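quick one before i forget lol
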Amino acid sequence: MRLDLQSRENCVAAVNDAAVVYNLAADMGGMGFIEANKGLCMLSVLINTHLLMAAREFGVPRFFYSSSACVYAADKQVSEQLEAPLKESDAYPAMPEDGYGWEKLFSERMCRHFTEDFGIATRVARYHNVYGPWGTYDGGREKAPAAVCRKVIQAQLSGSNEIEIWGDGEQTRSFTYIDDCLEGTLRLMSSDVVEPLNVGSDQLVTINQLVSIVENVAGVTLTRRYKLDAPKGVRGRNSDNTLVRERLGWAPSIKLETGMRHTYNWIREQMTADTRRRVFA
């Protein structure tokens, strides 16, 4: 859409009044999606490119970019028993997740260079597996916490009492509740921290333990079937929160058990509402 001169001036005024831009957009999903759609994930570089160019043109002084733990070097994530959580310096030498991870790392560098060349104050958060209510829980783009909730609920509603788990269930992750993600984002954006920071929980669990947490919330025990040839991603990943504590005086603190209860309850509400709509349609 082309803007006339007056509309363009109004847009510039609105941007200058807002003063900041948050780039939270990306074409992405869970491991099944990003392993099968590397090209589509890479196209997200266009979002950040165009937003940074517009921010420069309109004089936006501060810009936020949502990066990912997928930027971290694969050779530091080969075991579920991690030698150490992932600290920010572990992104180099570069060996990120193919496709999606490379897009995120490239866009981080673009933010850095727009700061150096054009004076835009950029802030970069490396999110670690954000989850919570109002997120995608089916259709192929959902991440593990939502997928596990959906599968447990489906097992309950269908009476199958079985759940399919991708891999052997011993791969490890940390999962960050949405409220912690938002708090960390706002704190980082208002700080003077110019380097990328982890915004992620450091509560490490196996996928099997994640399933157990949801079973406990649901009050069920399911038979587990393991799909060993399914996409699994890296073997182990956790957030080192040393730097975020030093620089922001804060770190994510919401326990997985608490966040998963909220997430499960919301997804169950959506799924049972869908069932009722189909029955009465």
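fyi The chain has one domain: 12-280.
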